[in-house]
Amino acid sequence: MGSGVVLYSHVVDAFAAEALACLHAITFARDMGFRKVVVEGDSRMIIVKVQKGIENLI
């Protein structure tokens, strides 16, 4: 397993911060070779957009 930290100084709001965290988590999982990933969050908009993006890839 692993972990990581990314520091952004120009994130404008909580939505952008959570979207970036989700992006980095998915990218990290892909780079580690995971085939299935469970992402949990409290922003429904981000979850819906991620799910739509995944459906477009299938």
Report what the structure shows.
GO terms for molecular function: nucleic acid binding; RNA-DNA hybrid ribonuclease activity. Residues 11-51 form the RNase H type-1 domain. It comes from Gossypium aridum. It holds the Pfam family RVT_3. This is RNase H type-1 domain-containing protein. The chain has 58 residues and is mainly alpha-helical. The chain contains two helices and no strands. It has one domain (14-57). Helices cover 55% and strands 0% of the residues. It has helices at residues 14-31, 44-57.
Helix content: 55-70%
Total DSSP helices: 2
**Backbone structural class:** mainly alpha
> What is the 3D shape?
flat
Regions with little confidence, pLDDT below 50 for 5+ residues:
none
Output the helix-strand order: HH
Residue fraction in strands? under 5%
Main sheet summary: none
Compute the number of strand runs: 0
Number of domains: 1
Computed over alpha carbons, the radius of gyration is: 12 Å
On the 0 to 100 scale, the average pLDDT is 81
Distance between the termini: 26 Å
